[in-house]
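Q: Joint fold for the lines below.
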Amino acid sequence: MNCRRVEQLLSQHLEGLLPTRVAGAVEAHLADCPDCRRRRDSIRTLESQLHELPALLPLRDIERRAVGRWMTERELAGLSSRRWFLPRAALQRSLRQPPARLAPLGAATAVLLLLSLGLMIARQHHGRPRGQQGPSVVVTSSPGRSVPQPGPHLPLYSHEPRVVANNPVQPRTEGKGSPVLTRIANLGPSSGTVSNRPHAADPSPRAQISRVDDLVYVNCNPETAIHEWVPLRPDEWEKIEARVRHSVQVRDDFVQIPFPRLVSTSERQIARAVESYKREAAIVDPRLSREVTCAFKATALSDLCDRLRADTGIQLVAGNSVADEKVTLFCEKTPLREVMRQLSRPFGYTWLRSGAPPGPPNLGGERGGSYRYELAQDLKSQLLEEELRNHERNAALLALEREIDQFRPFLSLSPDEVLARAKTAPAAEKPLLEKLAGLGWGPIQMYFRLSPQQQAALRAGQTLTFSEEPKPGEYPLPRDLARGALQCQRTWRVIKYVNGGVDAAPAGEGDTPDPKSVPLTAVPEVHAMVSLSLSQGELGQFTLDGGCGFFAPPISKRADDGLNVNSGSGPYAVGTAPGGARSEGGLVNPRLARDPALRQRVSVQPRSSCDLSPPFGHPSPTRGGAGGEVSQPKVTTADVLEALHRATSLPIVADFYTRLYKPEPVSLKNQPLSQTLNQLAEAMRLRWNKEEGWLQFRSATYYHDRLKEVPNRLLTRWAAARRQQGILTLDQVIEIAQLTDQQLDGAEMAEGAMECWGLKEWRLVRSGLLRPHVRFLASFTPEQRQEMMSAAGLPFTRMSLGQQQQGFLAGALFGGRTLQSLDDLAGATLRVDYSQPGWYQWLKPGDVSPGRWAVSLEPGPKGRRALMPPVRERTPEAALRAARRAFPSVTDAMLAAHYPDRPDVTAEKLLPQPEQIAPTELDLVIVYIPGTTNAHPVRWWRVNQQLSSWG
Amino acid sequence: MDALCKRKRMVGIQQWVAVGESEQEPGLEAELLRAGKAGDPRALESLLALHKRSLLALCYGILGHLEDAEDAAQETFLRALRALPRFRSEAAFRTWLFRIGINVCLKWKASRPPTEPWAEEQTGIAPETASPEIVALRHLQVMEALDSLPRRLRVILLLKVLEGWSVAEIGAALGWNSMRVQNELARARRALADWRRGAGEGEPR
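A: Joint structure:
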C-alpha cells in the first residue's frame, strides 16, 4: 500500500470504518512511513484541539435574549391581531432587523424590550381612574377607528415650542387612551432609523421626525407628575438602570450616556426615562466625524481634551478621575470619533455625554451642537485596579517570605559561627551567610519570632524596635538574642573609663583597634537592641530592613548622656511580585504575531525630547557626569513611540509613565515591525496590541505606575519656576514634598523629574528620612519659614500655640528625652539650611570636634552653647575667614571638658582649617536646637542622614 | 507535579460542565420541552441553555468570528422557538436544533472578515488548562486550520468531531448521501493535514 492510497483511506481508517484487512495494511504502512504517521497525528491533534473549543468560548445569555425576543414577538402578534392601530408591517420591519449584536445588544432588541415594558405598563394601567391617565396621549383606542398620523410621523425628541405652534394637526387626548400606545407609537420611527451597527451612516434622522407630536414630549400634566414624586429605592433604580444599559446599545458605542435621574415608583416614569435614554442612545453626533491630526507626547488628558476642543469646537473634557493621566497619541486626519474611541477603550475609561440637543434644525443649528463629552473612569474600574495592586502586594509579601526562609537553616548559629561558615561556604551561599553574619543577624533572627500582631504592624509600615531595656513603644528583646546582636556589631568597640563612663569607637576592618578598647560583648553595661522594618520602596516590592544597635546607661555627669548607636546594612531580603516591578512587556494578542501588516521592516531611532520644548524640556545645563562628559540624553516611551510612528505612520495610542531609557536598547534598524514591537515592548515594559489599525501600548504595571506618576501641571509649574529663578525656593521644595510617598519613592519618576524636568531638588525629598521634616515645614507660614532660614532660626517662642504643641516638633527636638526644665523649650530653635552649589563653606570635620550648628561654650549639661550661623562665601579664602570669625573663642575650660585625655588638642587646632573648606552642594538640612544649654543634643536631618551632636 | 494536578482538576471540572450541558438525564429535556411548549419562558431558557455551548462552538467553528457566532446562535434559537409548535419529538431536539443552526450558518453573510477571532476580551475567559498563551495558541491553530476549509467542509468536520454525528446523520442534515459525506470528510481531513504541514509541523502543541 502506498502513501497516496493511505492518504485516501486515512479518514475512514480513523473512523474505524475500514474492513479489518485493509485497516491492517494501513496500520502497517503507518508504522513504516513517518510522513503518513505525522499526517495522521496532525489530524488527531487538531481534532482533539477542536474538542477544547466549546470550553473556551465565553457564554453570554443568548438563550435569554432569544426567548425574550420571541415572547415580545408573540405579544405583538397578539396585539396586532386585535387590530391595534400600529401597522403590522412596521412592526415586522422592526422585528426583522438583523440579529442583534450581542456584546452590546442591538437596538432592535432594545425596542422590543421597551415595547414589552410598555405592555406591562399597559396592563397595569387598566383600571386606573381616568384622571390619572398619562399626559397628552396621542392615540385613541376606539376599536375600528382609524388613527391619523401613524408611526413614522411621531416624534423622537424635540424641545421646540415654535415648531409645535406651527403644527397643523392637533393631537387628541382621550380618556380611554392607553399609555402603552404612546409608547409604541413613539417607538415606531426610532426602530426604523436605528441600525445596530456602530457608526452606520445616519444622514439626517431629523428628516424623519415629524413636528406633529412634539406636544407629546413638551406637555405634561403637572398634577399627575406630582403623584409620581415618590422616591425609588436606590438599589431598585440600579437594577433598572443596569438592565436598560445592558440592553440598549448606544450608537457611538464607546460613549455612555448618563441615565436620566428620576425618583419615582411609577412605571410610567420609568418608561419615560427608558424612552429618553433610548432617544439619546440613538443619536449619532455628526460632529464627531470631523477629522483631527494628533501628535501628543506624554500629554495629560485634560490638556489633550483642551486641544481637541480648540481644534474641533466640540466640548470634550477629561473628568477628574483621569484628567492627569498622561497619554501619547499619534494619528493623521482621523475622525474625532475614532480618536475618542481610542482614548477610552484601551484604558477602560468611558465617555459620558451630557447636555441638551441643539436648537431648531431649520435655523441652521447643527445637530448635537451642545452635547458635551466627558472622559471618566468609573468606580468599578478603579476598584479593579485597586484589586490588582492588592494582589501584587500580597504576591510581593509572599516572595519576601520565601527569600527570608532561606535563612532558616542557619538560625541556630551565632554571628561568629555564621561568619566562620561563610568563609568556607560555596559561592552561591556566601552572600546569604555574610548578610546573616553581619548586622542582619538581629533583624533576621527577630523576624522569625514575631507575633502575628507584630507582623501585621510590620506590614503596615511600622519600624519595630526590640531592646533589652524597652522604652515606651519598644518591645523586649529576647535574652538569647542579646549576645548575638552585640556580637554582630564587629565594627564597634567600647572604651570604659575609670569614672564608669563608656564610649564607643568605630573600628574599621583593617585598623588596629585602640588598645584600651574591648568588644561590645565584654562590657556588661552595654545592652543590645534590634530594629526591624518592612518597606515598600517601589510598589509591588517589599524589602526587609533594620539593624542592630547598642546603648549604655548614662554616665553620672550628664543626665541623658548615654551611648546610643544604631546601624544596619539592609536590605536583607527583597520580595518582588512576579507581575510587579519587573513585569514584562510583550504582545497581548498572540494572533498578531502573524499579522501580515506587521511584516514590513522598520528602523526606529528615537530622539530625546528632554532637551526640547514642553512638555519635556528645560533640562539643567549641567547634564552629564562630574567629569564634564556629556552623556547622551535618555529617551522616554513617548520619544520611542514618536519614532515608531514616524517609521510606520500607523496611528498610535499609549499611556505614558515617566521612565527614561538609554537610546541604544530602544533603537532598532531594519527589523520586521512585529519583532520591533516586541523588542521595544520588552525593553520598555509595555504591552502592545493592534486594534482597528491602531497600535496600542499600555504599561505592564500601569496600575502601579498610575500612583507613581506626578501630574504634568505640577511639573510644568515647578520647572518654569526653576527656569526663572535658577533654583527652587524652599517653599517649592516643601510643595514637592506634599506629593504622595508613592510618587516620591518612585525611582523612575525621580529620574525623570531630575533629568527631564531639571528638578534637581527632587533628590532632597526622595529621602525617606528628610521627607517628614520637609512636610512638617508646611505647617508654618512663609514668614516663619523665612525666619528659619536666617542665622538665628525660628525660636520656639515665636511659633503659634498649635505649632508648639505638635508632637512631631517635640519628638524632633528632644527625641523622647524628658525635659529638664522649661528653659529647654524656651531656648529651642528650628533652623533650616538650604544651600545651593556655587559657594564655599566650612564643614564640620571629624566626629568629636564642635558641631557646625552649635558650639558648646561651657562644659556640663547646664553649660551654655552658641549657635553657629551658616557661613558661606564665594571663595574658599573668604569662607575660611568668615568661619574663623564666627567661631566662638575656645577656653581652656571647654577643652578640659570636651577632651579630658587629649592634651594635644588646642584652641588653635579647633579653629576652622583651610582643608575643611569645601564647595557647597545642593543640600537641605533641618536643624532642631533644643535650648541654649547642653542639656539635649542638637539634632539635624539631611538627605539620607540623621545626626545629632552635643556641640 | 503541581501543574499536572491542576490540569487534572481542570479537566475534571470540564467534564462536569460537559455532563451538565448535554448528557443530563433524558427526562429533563423532555420535561423542559413540555413546559416550554406550554409557554413557560423559564423552561425554554433552560432548554436552550442545555445546548448553548455546543451550538455556539459549532457556529463559531463555521463562521470564524465570535460575535457572528453569537448572533447566529441567537438567530438559531429564535427560529427554533418560532418553529417549536411544529416540532414533533420523533427527532432529538438537539439534532433538530443543530440542523437549524447549520442552515443559519451556511446562509450567514459574514458581517466582518474573520481576521481577529481571538481578540483581547475573549482571552480572559479561557479555562486554565494550560498557560493562557498555550491555550490561545492552540485555539489559534484550530481556527486557522478551520479557516483553510470551505464552509461546508467545516460543517461536516465540526458535526463529526464535536457532535459525533454519524455520516448518515450529517448526510440527512445536509441533504447528501453517505458516500458524499464520507468523501467530503476525508477531503476535510486531508486539508487539515495539509494545512498542518503548511503551517510548520515543528510548532509546539
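Q: Anything notable?
A: Residues 379-405 of chain A form the longest helix (27 residues). The longest strand of chain A covers residues 541-552.
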